[in-house]
Give the backbone structure.
Amino acid sequence: GAVRDISRIGGPIALQDFLKGISFLAITGAVNVLGLNASNGLGITEKLFVFLSIVPMSFLSALSAFVAQNVGANQPQRAVAAAKVAMGISMAFGVAVFLMAFFGGKLLVSIFTDQPPVIAEATAYLRSSSPEYLLTAIDFCLLGYFNGLGRTRFVMIQSLASAFLLRVPLSFVFSHVEGASMSLLGLAVPISALAALLASLWYFRRVRKLPVDR
């Protein structure tokens, strides 16, 4: 019935959001090894991520609804075309945000704090993690497309795998190597984002051959 369908589609999304919060706490624990300034710097970069990713996040939400409507109207090709247009627009913004984070990170961080040690740590992390904005520009659009198809279970598995199998473990490993720094820890972000994008691109090709959940 309706309750079962809502639970099947919405349940993975709710669980994903909950476990993402857990993964952030784990990453914070890894960064704490580097000291209070590094921990504060991480918090700032997470706040900036919400702002800097607003375009792909918006496309994720919009595509979820648009794709579902078109699939329901038996227009799957229109849904695919919309996803491709969204990826193009999102990627254009992704390039701009990447350049802003890589070259203008200090200015962005300064919005949240005037403490030089925290600014330095956050800027270093933001610069090394900045390629993430190029990768998520495409990945978030694909996730919105999958949500619209009702493939929320894959979205959950992909997101949690990239977080708990890559980003969290790499953050802990990088925080304990000799000469650990925020620049090194930041590399865990684009590495996990690249793996997530590759998984989404693979599934995008595969899902078009699968029956659609309505």
About this structure: The CA atoms of residues 44 and 111 lie 9 Å apart.
